[in-house]
């Protein structure tokens, strides 16, 4: 068996197509890393919002501010608020309240007083909170209205907490990781309340809870664990970026390793060896799996080197932080452990698709057909899964496509398809065995004389 596997690997390593896929993968990694290395922070184009030729005094004043402040200045993030204040002032110049607010905004911009805006929002937020709490005293509210009002109260309390955090930690307005975390917490707070108090099985609310606590970790530790433009993130999302190329490599080998023997007529000489047919076919299948794993390892290494050259290597020491829904706690782990977990979770999908290519190649004996069928199945899986989510079609729970991605179950998450981890394992094993057993039966009974 080992000798057969070595022989198969040697034959594959002499194929130019393998190295072509590797080169294409490396080139694509260069492109992805180059794009990620570019700054994607907040920026604006004044001409998009205000016409310089517009005689309106508000437009003229806004244009002056947009020219004065860059996207890196904190003032840029309060210009939309200033537009509303300026509009009110110019429309009703006799209103002393509008005039005072307008002048205070301009003075705060001039004096670099970003805390003025925080304190203003804080005072307004506390006032809004009291109004919401007063509304809760209404005895005529329905249960749904009470529930929604409590969620709004929690959301407002969170906004106040984030404003107080800005003051305490001196966090100016901007687009850095702390500002992104603050924004994420504010946006996720409403859904978090519903998940923890109303509907703990809702997968949409799950994402809110995950975002909320992971962002809280960033604020507490000041560790940028949500950066999507560093090497750590590139390695974390390795399969999101390169799964298609991995499938191209695996399907290319699996779809040809048997059928090429038929087409070239070498299958006859292979079968006159002292090895049984089952042993020969098994050695080929094991070879496919070995080559797949080798390609994944090499691709990870290439992504590490190429990504590091563009993005730097310092981020790989940062922790990976994810929320565990089983324990209702944050899991903090090293990058290598996370990569290993994610790889194990996605491998069933890749192996099942490669097994399909191998089975079709063995049964039909046509490389092109095996490759086309496999990628057609891969593309169709998106449609099937979409139908399973939106139309809740019960029978689709037993399709392999709604069960083969075990990322759905990581860290206690609930599958969007309504399936359990055990159910998914059983379905995947059944489909795998059907393809493998059928391949071996057909190969064992195949009349090679007519090939």
Keywords:
451 residues, mainly alpha, 2 domains, two-stranded antiparallel ribbon, 18 helices, 2 strands, 70% helix
Global structural class: mainly alpha
Strand order of the largest sheet: 1-2
Q: How many angstroms does the end-to-end distance come to?
A: 24 Å
Helix content: 55-70%
The low-confidence parts are: none
Q: Which assembly state applies to the chains in this document?
A: single chain
Based on CA inertia axes, which overall geometry fits?
A: elongated
- Total helices: the number is 18
- The whole-angstrom Rg is 30 Å
Largest sheet: 2 strands, antiparallel
On the 0 to 100 scale, the average pLDDT is: 91
Total domains: 2
What does this structure look like?
The protein has helices at 2-13, 16-37, 46-49, 57-68, 79-91, 96-110, 114-135, 143-169, 177-197, 203-221, 231-236, 238-254, 259-264, 267-271, 277-311, 335-364, 367-390, 421-445, and strands at residues 320-324, 329-333. It folds into two domains: 2-39 and 230-450, no CATH class; 46-221, no CATH class. α16 (335-364) packs across α17. It is built from 18 helices and two strands. A two-stranded antiparallel sheet has the order 1-2. It has 451 residues and is mostly helical. The longest helix has 35 residues, at 277-311. It is elongated, with a radius of gyration of 30 Å. β1 and β2 form a beta hairpin.
């Amino acid at each position: 068996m080992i000798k057969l596997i070595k022989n198969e690997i040697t034959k594959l390593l002499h194929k130019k197509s393998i190295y072509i896929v590797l080169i294409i993968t490396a080139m694509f990694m260069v492109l992805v890393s180059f794009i990620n290395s570019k700054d994607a922070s907040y920026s604006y184009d004044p001409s998009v919002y205000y016409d310089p030729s517009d005689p309106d005094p508000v437009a003229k004043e806004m244009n002056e501010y947009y020219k004065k402040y860059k996207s890196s200045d904190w003032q840029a993030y309060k210009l939309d608020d200033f537009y509303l204040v300026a509009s009110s002032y110019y429309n009703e110049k006799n209103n002393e309240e509008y005039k005072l607010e307008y002048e205070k905004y301009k003075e705060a911009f001039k004096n670099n007083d970003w805390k003025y805006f925080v304190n203003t929002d804080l005072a307004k937020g506390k006032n809004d909170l009291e109004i919401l709490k007063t509304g809760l005293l209404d005895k005529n509210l329905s249960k749904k209205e009470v529930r929604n009002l409590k969620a709004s109260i929690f959301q407002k309390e969170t906004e106040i907490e984030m404003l107080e955090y800005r003051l305490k930690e001196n966090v100016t307005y901007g687009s850095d990781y702390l500002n992104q975390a603050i924004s994420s917490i504010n946006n996720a707070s409403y859904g978090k309340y519903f998940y923890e108090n109303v509907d703990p099985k809702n997968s949409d609310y799950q994402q809110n809870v995950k975002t909320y606590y992971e962002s809280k970790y960033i604020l507490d530790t000041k560790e940028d664990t949500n950066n999507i433009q560093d090497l750590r993130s590139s390695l974390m999302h390795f399969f999101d970026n390169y799964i298609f190329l991995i499938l191209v490599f695996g399907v290319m080998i699996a779809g040809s390793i048997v059928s090429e023997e038929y087409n070239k007529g070498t299958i006859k000489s292979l079968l006159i060896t002292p090895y049984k047919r089952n042993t020969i076919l098994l050695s080929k299948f094991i070879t496919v799996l070995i080559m797949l794993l080798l390609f994944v390892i090499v691709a990870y290494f290439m992504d590490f080197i190429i990504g590091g050259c563009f993005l730097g290597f310092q981020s790989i020491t940062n922790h990976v932080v994810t929320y565990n829904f089983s324990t209702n706690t944050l899991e903090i782990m090293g990058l290598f452990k996370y990569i290993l977990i994610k790889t194990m979770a996605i491998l069933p999908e890749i192996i099942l698709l490669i097994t399909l290519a191998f089975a079709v190649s063995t049964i039909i004996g046509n490389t092109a057909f095996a490759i086309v069928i496999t990628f057609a199945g891969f593309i169709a899986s998106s449609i099937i899964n979409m139908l399973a989510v939106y139309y809740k079609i019960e029978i689709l729970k037993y399709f392999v496509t709604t069960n083969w991605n075990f990322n759905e179950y990581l860290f206690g998450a609930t599958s969007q398809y309504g399936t359990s981890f055990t159910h998914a394992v059983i379905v995947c094993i059944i489909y795998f065995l059907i393809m493998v057993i059928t391949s071996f039966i057909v190969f064992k009974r195949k009349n090679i004389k007519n090939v």
